[in-house]
UniProtKB/TrEMBL annotation:
<feature type="region of interest" description="Disordered">
    <location>
        <begin position="62"/>
        <end position="81"/>
    </location>
</feature>
<protein>
    <submittedName>
        <fullName>DUF2220 family protein</fullName>
    </submittedName>
</protein>
<dbReference type="InterPro" id="IPR014544">
    <property type="entry name" value="UCP028408"/>
</dbReference>
<feature type="compositionally biased region" description="Low complexity">
    <location>
        <begin position="62"/>
        <end position="79"/>
    </location>
</feature>
<dbReference type="InterPro" id="IPR024537">
    <property type="entry name" value="DUF3322"/>
</dbReference>
<dbReference type="Pfam" id="PF11795">
    <property type="entry name" value="DUF3322"/>
</dbReference>
<dbReference type="Pfam" id="PF09983">
    <property type="entry name" value="JetD_C"/>
</dbReference>
<feature type="domain" description="DUF3322">
    <location>
        <begin position="7"/>
        <end position="206"/>
    </location>
</feature>
<feature type="domain" description="Wadjet protein JetD C-terminal">
    <location>
        <begin position="219"/>
        <end position="387"/>
    </location>
</feature>
<dbReference type="InterPro" id="IPR024534">
    <property type="entry name" value="JetD_C"/>
</dbReference>
Amino acid sequence: MLTVAEARAKARTKLTASMAAWAARPAEAAGIDIALHPPTEAQVLADQRAAADWAASWRAIAAPESPSTGSSSTESSTTDGVRVDWAERSWARVGRQQVPVRLRLTDAEAVAGFVGGDPARRWRCLRDRAATMRSGFGETEALASAIRAHGKRILGLDDEAFTTLIDVVDWLRAHPVGRLRPRQLPIRGVDSKWFEGHRSLVTALLTAAGCPAALDVLDAEARIRMRILDEHLAPHGLGDVTAPVTELAALDLSPEVVFVFENLESVLAMPAWAGAVVIHGSGYAVDAVAELGWVASARVIYWGDLDSHGFAILARLRAHLPAAASVLMDETTLLDHRDLWVTEPRPHTGRLSGLNGTENRALARIRAEGNVRLEQERIPWATALTALQAQAGPGLAEHG
């Protein structure tokens, strides 16, 4: 016997999972049916009070009408789209009884009305915002796709932020003024930080509005920290540089080896090294490293944390630079420093391509041990330098 509370929980789950799709295409938003699993005669005889109370709870939702002569079932409905199907049971020891057998919520509004509370409020908010966007940008499949894909983000905006979003899209549609910095947009509350958080949503809505090229607004260009370890390579003696990617790419450099480290302290600790530069590939900044044209002709050596994200960054680097080697990212290094492990709070759980056998075994061990992490900075520096020299190969000896 499915209780009213249990039916509401099922409907709540469906509403939460489907509200973006329903808001995207309200005309296609189907209702839901929920089987109520009425009791058997044996169950009624075992606890008649429970069976009677259960039927009464559904009668309060939608009481059965009086059946027509000869009818074995009757369907009852309410004005808010909540319908309960009742069926007659003829039992030898209990007699004829009308029992609820199915709850039918005819559309999204009925689902929300039956569920109530915060989920219903969230549905109505998203429904209304989707209607606003359709009114302004047209009822197109592109807009429906944008609402489905970004429903949570649209719903997560407060009223002021949603109004700002619509204002930005409207302004960019009407003003094809070329390349702008976010600071130049004459819209209150819009700056670089706002664009950083809303660019994908603005892009999706502009595409849906038929103006995919309107978003020619530039974020701040990615900047990279780099140390040139060989003074003979350093332009004008400049050995420690933080600059936009395009500026670093324009340097006339020809290093033999490029170290890419995840940890800045390791970058700063590197000694003078013939023919070498070291780049801070923090997080997923390795995408920008690959934009430095002179890196492609060098031997690239990556060293990151021994954890799932360290290997995810390595895989990402290899997508751009397939020949990149890794150092200190193997199972032996992991196990030799077991006492320095910590737990990775939010591990990367997806499959990674581009790793070699040694790296895959280390990653598998990390996960088998409970998603542990050996941070790069915890490995003794003397151990690290020895491994880096061995990986860099002959002719690239440390000096100074």
